[in-house]
Design goal:
- There is one protein chain.
- The chain folds into two domains: 126 residues, 3-Layer(aba) Sandwich (D-Maltodextrin-Binding Protein, domain 2); 149 residues, D-Maltodextrin-Binding Protein, domain 2, CATH 3.40.190.10.
- It is of the alpha/beta class.
- The chain is built from 14 helices and ten strands.
- The N terminus is likely disordered.
- Strands 1, 2, 3, 4, 5, 6, 7, 8, 9 and 10 form a ten-stranded mixed sheet that branches.
- The termini are far apart.
- The radius of gyration is 23 Å and the shape is elongated.
């Protein structure tokens, strides 16, 4: 009898403890994936926690492929994703909302012996393809028409990622078609190119430009795209001098698409946790004020409205 009374007294406390534990669990948002949108998600998490200190975030990079795989496996609440979602991925149950826009830009080492020529003439899409997919151009002399040209030290991404897939799509291929030495992650690829005088790579804009100074990161120079293919970079194509000017070019549709693209958060079906839905709604509304200062381009209001409707369905 005493045991029964004691149990009856303890049971409410046990239930309260269980509810508290569940509440704590439900107030945690786990996110993994693309390096492209990682800085934006971290910024949003910081600002959101100022308003909702009870919410906890677990955020990790690893590439878009990891983000989608983790989301579909239920390992995380949301996956960061940085390329167009395929019909096959939608058939697997991929649910998504777009949040910001950025671009992939080709880059070289600032001390490349041909940097002045490259900045003046730029490279056409076909020349990029000859280097990265066809393999018919392998040295700087061959590319630029100079004698005794040094070999191109070509780098690509080793991890499944949106940047490589987007860059490859612009060149008419897929990530597995890209030539070069594979380097893991956006930070790793940028660092490798910055340390190799003959290095040639590509990165998401946030890893080529410094958000604080607005200039290019130490050791890197952007390879301008000769969009009209006239053999020189005209004034309307010369927008790489600052982060602000390149973001304006992306926003105004001057920079080619791809490699400009929308960035997403994905899940296995629509998220069921209220804390996740609330965070996504905030990111699409109040959170958009932090997009430009973090180095991204806002999506259109029409796109925002459509994604908010998805969250209400």
């Amino acid at each position: 009898m005493k045991k029964a009374i004691l149990l009856s007294l303890l049971l409410p406390a046990l239930l309260v403890t269980a509810c508290v534990s569940k509440e704590k669990k439900d107030n945690t948002i786990s996110i993994s994936g693309a390096f492209a949108i990682y800085p934006m998600v971290v910024k949003w998490a910081e600002e959101y926690q100022k308003l909702h200190p009870e919410v906890r975030f677990n955020i990790s990079g690893g590439g878009a492929g990891k983000g989608l795989a983790d989301a579909l496996a239920g390992v995380v609440d949301l996956g960061m994703f940085s390329r167009e979602i395929t019909p096959a991925e939608l058939e697997q149950g991929t649910w998504y909302v777009g949040l910001v826009i950025d671009a992939v830009v080709p880059d070289i080492n600032i001390d490349n012996p041909y940097v002045d020529i490259i900045k003046q003439r730029g490279l056409t899409r076909d020349e990029f393809r000859a280097i990265y997919i066809d393999g018919t151009i392998t040295n700087w002399g061959q590319l630029l028409g100079v004698e005794n040209g040094e070999p191109i030290a070509l780098y690509t991404r080793s991890d499944a990622c949106g940047a490589a897939e987007t860059w490859a799509k612009y060149l008419g291929g897929k990530q597995e078609d890209l030539l070069g030495i594979g380097i893991f992650g956006d930070p790793g690829l940028a660092e490798t190119t910055a340390k190799d005088q003959l290095g040639f790579g590509f990165n998401n804009t946030i890893y080529v430009y410094d958000i604080n100074t607005g200039g290019k990161r130490p050791g890197l120079e952007v390879v301008p795209i000769d969009i009209n293919e006239n053999g020189q970079i005209d004034p309307e194509e010369d927008f790489y001098g600052s982060f602000e000017s390149v973001l304006d070019a992306i926003a105004n549709g001057v920079y080619p698409s791809p490699p400009s693209r929308e960035l997403y958060l994905v899940a296995k079906g629509k998220p069921q946790k209220k804390v996740v839905i609330d965070f996504l709604k905030w990111a699409l509304t109040e959170g958009q004020q932090y997009v430009p200062e973090t180095g991204f381009v806002p999506i259109t209001q029409n796109a925002i409205d459509n994604y908010l409707k998805k969250l209400e369905e």
